[in-house]
């Protein structure tokens, strides 16, 4: 550039500047994705070994994993897990199905909505676990009270999400259906249901998370089976390592159930834009 | 004045602690004692381990032993409840309408039995184990459930269970209300079982002088308790103290109910405790056996006994 | 809310406008519409009367918010008028009477492009084998062949708009109601699609009521341009556009009549817009 | 219309058709809004009186309300309520502040995000109440363990919401900031924070709901104060009416706290489009 | 990523283009840009060279997706080129060098219209008392006076776009980079704003680089029209537009040169679009 004035010029480089090496490494997301939990566990192990962490409350990961593997050999652990899963699922189904149905019905019928909305709005903010004692009084300490409390918690999450989905259908889609003279059930099937599906799945996702919370609490009462029981029981008899084994399984259950739901959602809602990749601000 | 925080369940077996408090035995020793209500064995281990309590009444069960095995430092130092003959504080009660069908331990087959602390390594589990063994039964031969004492009484009333293990004064109450009948008191099934004990946590173990003074006051109260029950001291005063501090608020009940046994010298039935540990381990309540000598420390009680006997 | 009555049961409350000549397809008489917006009443249309002949291509221009969309929605039967009436002659009961192309993006995100375009036929239970060739034809016309099985999220805004035009065409109605269908397109695609629209219209002789903001578009496409006044909308001018057909957008540019007409419309609109 | 062909004509009426009277009534939303809960209570009362509902589990609303009024005279009920509120609030603040800070930091730093995300993703689906026994072991049975468990639950909700908010800032806003040569802290203050605020408040809302759930559960342990304690205790001693009184207060607490949060949100985020009115489909 | 260097430290890697004449404000030399889209590499720009003189109004037209926005973003310093260089002469260090009006809605939803328009000044810590009159002036020019204290959600799409134009004007840069700023407006507001833009440009003699899809807009506004080819974008033609200024959109319509030029550009674009 040979302009001989004192003007300033903004010049951009003609190729990309080299990034620092560490930044390139962090670009490879999988590296950190694997590295960080492993690093965390190693750090934990070391902190316990040098006695900076109290081994009574934070047993070494190596020990816990060994415990987990040992217990995995016996069917008892799997019976506990099975109970927890079945309570979650039965309760979930018990709550989700009426939740979706009532949600769609309320979404499409203003009368029904205005009739029920105030009552539901009043019940919604009650933490459903607070109803658990009442439910135990009514249904006893057995399985049914556990299903019912999970069902109640799931029901409200799914109902609210479905309702929001149906109510918030873009007006124009209903206009198109009307313009094309869609019959009532055609409009339900081709517009209301698919348009609400993403919301319904959001409700499922929240409900599933809630169901695990509620199951863990419910398993503190009137049962000797289930991962929640193992956690509370281990606390009572001070078996911290057993508690960790159960915690790991509960975490896995939470993680895998959400993963499964996401899979199902992707299969059922192929029209959704894939989630945005991590954005490098 | 030395501060001591002591946990108790508000149960009648905590009597020596409340007596020492009310009759000023702690003050005599220069101790400033604060009583904290606890509601479960888990609470006990937790609070002792975090140092929120210096000492506590509690049950020498699997939870306590497990905690010690995993490095929590507390000691079992004195008797605070055992099934001395005549002290059937616990009892097996049978639903009224089944009283004539359940007569021997073998009749328990396929019955439902509710107990507080089932599967957590509670003392009463061993008692049940002995009862069943005498009838040639195993736990799996009947339906066992875990319930709080209150639930057991209610469940007997609503006929949800057949047999329950209850504590006084509920034992007396359910019989009086015609809900159930007393079948066997615990002292007839497993005499001298150590179901209650005084425990010292690290907070007081570190202060031996305080620990000793505390024990003196405690034993002094235990002796008053035994004297009152034997009619050698004012039972009215005892009842007044218990009414004030324990969950049994109706003075009438003390007339008919059985009291827990508390050894005047605080002596623990270590042989029985070892037997219990064996049972819990054999029945899957504990993963490993523990050496009782690591856990029990009767030296405080022995020193206190000497001091009290000398001053008599 | 919406009724399709045989003619002889015609609504006795038909507006005072009276006689509707035999060639008339759409007759709008004294239409007015008030909206309730909270406590206030917004008057969107007032005393609006229009006649559209069979096979005529009529464009409506007017300032933003003057009630064009409201008018079209009433004609489509999606909104009830506050006063006045609309009657449309339905020649062939086997065909849909009217289909609307909406101003907003209106193709269904949950259907593939193919399913979207075939929506009207599917609702009428036309067998799949008959739907497919029709859909393919209109996908080709709108340049979307390669996206037949894509979902809308994979399309650009312009492509979505083209799909909704294809959906209306595939429904094959007697009356096409188009609310700024090409506004979201870039100039080049817009002109291509305008030419396509004129070709299809020429072939099928549909009656078209077309809303646009673009004076050029109005002049290129229509037989008549209706200019609406600012809210509450009424018809301010009714201009005949006599350029010979077939027309090509770029060939009209040199015509002095074109410059005169567009200037005339521009001045009328400007008058309405100035208050903004 | 006097066209003499056999053509069909679609004719629209020239004024709005009269709606049925009941539909007009339901238009007046407030009518149903008040009517439906009142009706529900009256129905409940009647069902109990004619013994179709079991009075032991569903005491008559009139009785419960009387109980509530009587107890409201004594300060004990308000002490319980005060404990619950203070545990909720302290735990909420303890969790929300670090949640927002870490969320913004992770949102803006890809390295930090990639480092921590996997570990957080692993912990997130664990129902936090399952950690409560562990927290009781570490912090004892007193107030601190209750604050910590509430804080942990709130922390993750707020963190995830804030992170999502910062990561999903529309790219173009950051471009504008760059184009206007905003300095780093200017971009934080004028873009990142306000853009993430609606998400942060969503996190607050979820966290607040969660905090009430967790408090109610935590009050089952090591305390004789708090509405949760009243509920669990009433269950144990079969005092159903006391339970209902506490339930009503918990529900009110949930409702009012959300209402308050919504107020604060509206004050802090004046730029948000007011929520859409109910839509009459 | 972005550097403002005094001229004499000019980048030695400056493209082969070489000499830049003294009146040149913006010199783009051999610009190319590849994007990584998953595994594939998309070439958005290739060998693109442009000179814009001080005070010149240059318009870029080209088919959708040809790289126009990419080019403007590189000039704005928001994107780094893969090859080639951009240099812009900065005359007055007290003024911002360039400001961009983005194609998407870009005014901040969390600021009032007033705060949005004053954003650039606020960032430079100009005192409030000096900001207000500037903001008021540009709000008036864009017809937004009555919405000064409204939040963007209360505005229509067109009003938002006008606000972002006002924001760029208020920043008073030497170079205005405008990416289809009027595309979202209705025809009437568009023409009014075009006239406003020409007036401001005439008064302040800014250098303007303006992207549009509308041939009419390009012809009405600019001194030169650059036509870009389809992706990867390169400059296909560079046409001078010599109509006398001040111009009024509607007055040009009758000019035969206007018809010729617009036809010429149309044919070039059509060639590019046909593949779609
Ligand atoms: N459902 C409604 N409730 C209240 N007001 C409405 C409703 N629909 C439209 N309006 C108002 O009626 C007027 C006309 O709206 P309409 O959409 O018909 O205008 P338009 O001419 O199509 O405008 P544009 O050119 O911007 O699309 C506007 O002022 C609008 O705000
Ligand atoms: N960040 C990116 N990553 C990958 N590809 C990109 C990115 N930005 C732009 N492209 C691609 O580069 C090409 C040019 O995009 P650009 O936005 O510059 O086009 P344009 O000419 O502005 O189009 P339009 O007229 O539709 O605005 C397009 O094919 C686009 O998909
Ligand atoms: Mg409109
Ligand atoms: Mg672009």
Give a written overview of the molecule.
By secondary structure, chain A is an all-alpha fold. Chain A has a single domain, classed as MetI-like (MetI-like fold). Chain A has helices spanning 21-27, 29-49, 61-73, 75-108, 110-123, 132-139, 143-167, 171-179, 184-218, 227-236, 240-268; one strand at 8-11. Chain A starts with 7 loop residues before the first strand and ends in a 13-residue tail after the last helix. The relative contact order of chain A is 0.11. Residues 1-9, 12-19 and 276-281 of chain A have low confidence and may be disordered. Chain B has 312 residues and is α/β, with parallel strands linked by helices. Helix content of chain B is 43%, strand content 17%. Chain B is built from 15 helices and ten strands. Chain B has helices spanning 15-22, 25-28, 41-50, 62-69, 123-134, 149-157, 170-176, 186-189, 202-205, 208-229, 235-245, 253-256, 270-282, 292-295, 299-311; strands at residues 2-8, 31-37, 55-58, 75-79, 90-95, 112-115, 143-146, 163-167, 180-185, 197-200. In chain B, helix 5 (123-134) links the parallel strand 6 and strand 7 (143-146). The model of chain B has no long low-confidence stretch (mean pLDDT 88). In chain C, a hairpin with a 2-residue loop joins strand 2 and strand 3. Chain C has helices spanning 68-76, 113-117, 119-123, 128-141, 157-171, 187-204, 215-221, 249-252, 256-273; strands at 5-6, 24-37, 40-53, 57-61, 83-90, 98-101, 175-179, 207-211, 224-228, 235-240. Chain C has 276 residues and is an alpha/beta fold. In chain C, the strands form two sheets. Chain C has a six-stranded mixed β-sheet, sandwiched between helices. Chain C is globular, with a radius of gyration of 19 Å. The relative contact order of chain C is 0.16. The chains are: A mainly alpha (281), B alpha/beta (312), C alpha/beta (276). Chains in contact: A-B, A-C, A-D, A-E, B-D, C-D, C-E, D-E. At the A-D interface, helix 2, helix 5, helix 6, helix 9 and helix 10 of A face helix 2, helix 5, helix 6, helix 9 and helix 10 of D. Strand 1 of chain A pairs antiparallel with strand 5 (83-90) of chain E, so a sheet runs across the interface. Residues 68-69, 103, 179 of chain C line the site of one magnesium ion (MG).
């Amino acid at each position: 550039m040979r302009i001989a004035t004192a003007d300033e010029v903004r010049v951009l480089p003609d190729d990309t500047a080299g990034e620092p090496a560490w930044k390139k490494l962090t670009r490879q997301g999988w590296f950190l994705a694997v590295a960080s939990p492993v690093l965390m566990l190693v750090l934990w192990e070391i902190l316990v070994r040098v006695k900076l962490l109290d081994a009574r409350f934070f047993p070494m990961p190596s020990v816990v994993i060994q415990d987990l593997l040992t217990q995995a050999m016996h069917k008892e652990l799997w019976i506990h897990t099975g109970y927890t899963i079945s309570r979650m699922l039965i309760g979930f189904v018990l709550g989700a199905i009426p939740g979706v149905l009532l949600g769609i019905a309320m979404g499409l019928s203003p009368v029904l909505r205005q009739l029920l909305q105030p009552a539901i709005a009043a019940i919604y903010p009650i933490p459903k676990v607070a109803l658990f004692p009442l439910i135990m009084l009514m249904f006893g300490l057995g399985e049914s009270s556990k299903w019912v409390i999970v069902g109640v918690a799931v029901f409200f999450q799914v109902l609210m999400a479905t309702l929001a989905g149906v109510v918030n259908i873009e007006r124009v889609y209903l206009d198109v259906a009307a313009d094309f003279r869609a019959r009532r059930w055609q409009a339900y099937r081709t517009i209301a249901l698919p348009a609400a599906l993403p919301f319904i799945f959001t409700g499922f996702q929240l409900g599933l998370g809630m169901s695990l919370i509620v199951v863990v609490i419910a398993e503190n009462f009137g049962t000797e089976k289930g991962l929640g029981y193992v956690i509370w029981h281990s606390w009572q008899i001070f078996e911290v390592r057993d508690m960790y084994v159960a915690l790991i399984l509960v975490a896995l259950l939470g993680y895998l159930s959400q993963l499964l739901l996401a899979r199902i959602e992707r299969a059922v809602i192929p029209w959704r834009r894939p989630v945005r990749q991590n954005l490098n601000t | 004045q030395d501060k001591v925080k002591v946990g108790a369940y508000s149960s009648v077996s905590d009597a020596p602690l409340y007596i020492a408090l009310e009759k000023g035995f702690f003050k005599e020793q220069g101790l400033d004692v604060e009583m904290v209500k606890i509601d479960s064995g888990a609470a006990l281990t937790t609070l002792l381990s975090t140092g929120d309590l210096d000492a506590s009444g509690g049950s020498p069960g699997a939870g306590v032993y497990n905690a010690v095995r995993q490095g929590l430092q507390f000691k079992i130092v004195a008797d605070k409840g055992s099934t001395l003959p005549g002290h059937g504080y616990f009892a097996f009660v049978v639903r009224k309408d089944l009283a004539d069908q359940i007569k021997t331990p073998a009749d328990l087959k396929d019955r439902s039995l509710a107990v507080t602390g089932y599967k957590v390594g509670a003392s009463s589990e061993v008692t049940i184990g002995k009862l069943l063994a005498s009838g040639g039964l195993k736990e799996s031969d009947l339906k066992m459930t875990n319930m709080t004492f209150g639930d057991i009484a209610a469940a007997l009333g609503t006929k949800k269970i057949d047999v329950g293990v209850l504590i006084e004064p509920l034992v007396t109450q359910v019989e009086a209300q015609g809900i159930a009948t007393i079948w066997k008191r615990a002292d007839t099934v497993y005499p001298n079982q150590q179901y209650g004990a005084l425990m010292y946590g690290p907070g007081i173990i570190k202060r031996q002088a305080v620990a000793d003074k505390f024990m003196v006051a405690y034993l002094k109260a235990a002796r008053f308790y035994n004297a009152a029950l034997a009619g050698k001291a004012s039972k009215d005063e005892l009842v007044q103290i218990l009414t004030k501090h324990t969950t049994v608020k109706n003075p009438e009940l003390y007339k008919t109910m059985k009291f827990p046994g508390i050894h005047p010298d605080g002596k623990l039935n270590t042989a029985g405790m070892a037997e219990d540990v064996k049972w819990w381990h054999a029945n899957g309540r504990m993963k490993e056996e523990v050496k009782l000598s690591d856990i029990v420390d009767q030296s405080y009680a022995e020193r206190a006994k000497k001091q009290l006997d000398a001053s008599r | 809310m919406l009724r399709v009555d045989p003619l002889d049961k015609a609504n006795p409350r038909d507006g005072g406008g009276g006689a509707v000549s035999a060639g008339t397809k759409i007759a709008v008489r004294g239409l007015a519409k008030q909206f309730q917006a909270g406590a206030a009443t917004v008057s969107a249309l007032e005393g609006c009367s229009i006649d559209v002949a069979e096979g005529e291509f009529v464009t409506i221009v007017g300032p933003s918010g003057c009630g064009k969309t409201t008018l079209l929605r009433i004609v489509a039967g999606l909104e009830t008028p506050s006063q006045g009436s609309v009657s449309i002659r339905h020649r062939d009961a086997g065909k849909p009477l009217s289909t609307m192309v909406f101003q907003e993006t209106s193709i269904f995100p949950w259907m593939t492009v193919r399913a979207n375009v075939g929506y009207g036929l599917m609702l009428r239970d036309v067998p799949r084998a008959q739907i497919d060739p029709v859909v393919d034809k209109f996908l080709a016309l709108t340049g979307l062949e390669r996206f037949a099985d894509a979902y809308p999220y994979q399309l650009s805004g312009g492509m979505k708009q083209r799909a909704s035009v294809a959906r209306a065409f595939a429904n094959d109605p007697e009356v096409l109601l188009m609310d700024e269908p090409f506004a979201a397109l870039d100039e080049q695609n817009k002109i291509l699609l305008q030419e396509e629209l004129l070709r299809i219209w020429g072939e099928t002789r549909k009656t078209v009521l077309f809303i646009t903001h673009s004076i050029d578009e109005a002049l290129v496409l229509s037989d008549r341009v209706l200019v609406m006044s600012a809210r509450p909308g009424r018809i301010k001018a009714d201009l005949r556009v006599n350029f010979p057909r077939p027309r090509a957008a770029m060939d009209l540019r040199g015509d002095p009549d074109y410059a005169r007409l567009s200037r005339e419309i521009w001045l009328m609109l400007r008058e309405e817009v100035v208050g903004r």
